[in-house]
Design a protein that fits this description.
This protein has 372 residues and is mostly helical. The chain folds into three domains: 1-106, Orthogonal Bundle (Methyltransferase, Methionine Synthase (B12-binding Domains), Chain A, domain 1), CATH 1.10.1240; 113-246, Cobalamin-binding domain (Rossmann fold, 3-Layer(aba) Sandwich), CATH 3.40.50; 252-363, Phycocyanins (Globin-like, Orthogonal Bundle), CATH 1.10.490. It is built from 16 helices and five strands. It has helices at residues 16-28, 32-43, 51-75, 81-103, 129-140, 154-163, 179-191, 208-212, 221-230, 243-246, 254-260, 262-276, 285-308, 311-327, 335-345, 350-363, and strands at residues 116-121, 144-147, 168-172, 196-199, 216-217. The protein starts with 15 loop residues before the first helix and ends in a 9-residue tail after the last helix. The chain binds cobalamin. Cobalamin is lined by residues 60, 64, 67-68, 70-71, 74-75, 85, 88, 124-131, 133-134, 170-172, 174-176, 197-201, 218, 220-221, 224, 317, 320.
């Protein structure tokens, strides 16, 4: 079925675009009752044939896109942080309502579970809704899922696997800054003999960082189901390894040194920024705190790009930050002195310098009449 036309349930009623708009309105109006009623009606009555398939479509083609829109509208500064939180809470409730409605429907293909998997977010990762969506779709497709939720410390994930063996761990991360932690979790699960499927925006286009970390990758729950059904190789005990076995560039110690000097890098960058960007001298204490946070995120993402040795990761983050600043009427050119300061401080680190230069190049606005 196309996501652009027809209905989610093959029956009469509003089409997908209308339903997405209605759910969006209910979410930003903070109207939980209306939102839950809408997704339940769109899924269909309890006991209806095809309820599991309908529920999957509602999760992936109605609720997920509305949740993505929450991010787009927040980034554009068209909804408040409070509205973003409320809308997310409503969408979480909608996911549960749809899952509960479909849970009673028999799985025509299977008498018992297909197998057991554990779904968890990487330590530090608050974005639990994507992992919850993956969980509910796999349950609808007959898998027994232990759902561990947001920010699961790696040692507790491993302890859980020892208590409740799994056919695979499905590891979710949305923020690239968590990639070094994800790498540790991947190798720890594999060392415990459990294969890993990674997923979520953090793992990059087509899961490129997951593959560098020797994990399988799937774009969504349906892709994960396909991999699980096909069967994953069980890692052997020699899967235990240090990160530089997968990422040999880490031997140059640049990542460790950037990470360790983060506090000093942030402090010096703020000082240099104040010299170079005059409006900052009039900033309130609140604005200074936000700026310090932004610089902290910049240094964290720089360190992450050095970790995976990918300039694109940092350039994507910087252009994203420029868009966020612009939507809040802070000129993106304020990022240039910050990047220049970091380049000056890290001039003896060739990989960091290359990554910073690429991001700076992407931000530089060509003079009128000249090509970039
Ligand atoms: C809701 C939300 C939050 C909520 C999360 C609450 C919750 N319970 O989940 C809160 C408020 C906590 C939050 C916090 C932050 N957030 Co936020 N957040 C979002 C938002 C709007 C929605 C996330 C979501 O649910 N997406 C919907 C799902 C359906 O999409 P998805 O992630 O792509 O997942 C699908 C696939 O990727 C895949 N998948 C996902 N995981 C897995 C795992 C496996 C194994 C598999 C197979 C597949 C798979 O399947 C999913 C379903 O199809 C996104 C915007 C967005 N576009 O996603 C921002 C976003 C992810 N957040 C962002 C940011 C910056 C932050 C903060 C840093 C903000 C801050 N300054 O504090 C913090 C970081 C917190 C942390 N340490 O993790 C940025 C990240 C930008 C970047 N490049 O780093 C985004 C993109 C917002 C934006 N538009 O710019 N956030």
């Amino acid at each position: 079925m196309s996501t652009q036309s027809g209905t989610f349930t093959d029956g009469p009623g509003p089409g997908p675009d209308d339903l997405r708009e209605q759910l969006w309105q209910a979410a930003v109006d903070c109207d939980e009752t209306r939102a839950v009623d809408l997704v339940r009606r769109a899924t269909g009555p309890a006991g209806a044939p095809g309820l599991r398939a309908a529920a999957e479509r509602i999760l992936l083609r109605l609720i997920a896109p509305v949740q993505e829109r929450v991010g787009v509208e927040w980034a554009a500064n068209s909804i408040t942080v409070a509205q973003e939180h409320a809308a997310t809470a409503i969408n979480e409730r909608c996911v549960s309502a749809v899952a509960d409605l479909a849970a009673s429907a028999p799985d025509p293909g299977h008498a018992g579970p297909r197998g057991r998997v554990t779904v968890a977010c990487v330590d530090g990762e608050w974005h639990a809704l994507p992992a919850r969506l993956v969980t509910e779709v796999l349950r609808l497709r007959g898998w027994h899922v232990d759902y561990l939720g947001a920010q699961v410390p790696t040692e507790h994930l491993i302890a859980h696997l020892h208590q409740r063996p799994a056919d695979a761990v499905l590891l979710s991360s949305s923020i690239p800054a968590h990639l070094p932690t994800a790498h540790t979790a991947i190798s720890a699960c594999q060392a415990a003999g459990v294969p890993v499927i990674a997923g979520g925006a953090a793992f990059g286009p087509e899961g490129r960082y997951a593959r560098r970390m020797q994990a399988a990758w799937a774009p969504d729950a349906v892709g994960a189901h396909t991999l699980l059904t096909r069967g994953l190789d069980r890692p052997t005990a020699d899967a235990a390894r240090l990160p530089d076995l997968d990422l040999p560039h880490l031997n140059d110690q640049e990542y460790t040194l950037v990470r360790q000097s983060k506090r000093q890098l942030v402090k010096q960058t703020l000082t240099d920024l104040e010299d170079a960007f005059a409006p900052m001298r009039a900033y309130s204490a609140f604005q200074r705190e936000r700026t310090a946070e932004d610089i902290d995120h910049i240094v964290t993402h720089l360190a992450t790009a050095v970790y995976v040795d990918d300039a694109e990761l940092f350039t994507t983050f910087i252009t994203w930050t420029a868009g966020i600043l612009q939507a809040r009427r802070v000129p993106p050119r304020s990022l240039l002195p910050a990047l220049d300061s970091l380049r000056q401080q890290l001039k003896d680190f060739p990989r960091a310098d290359r990554i910073l230069a690429a991001a700076r190049g992407a931000l530089t606005v060509p003079a009128p009449g000249r090509s970039a």
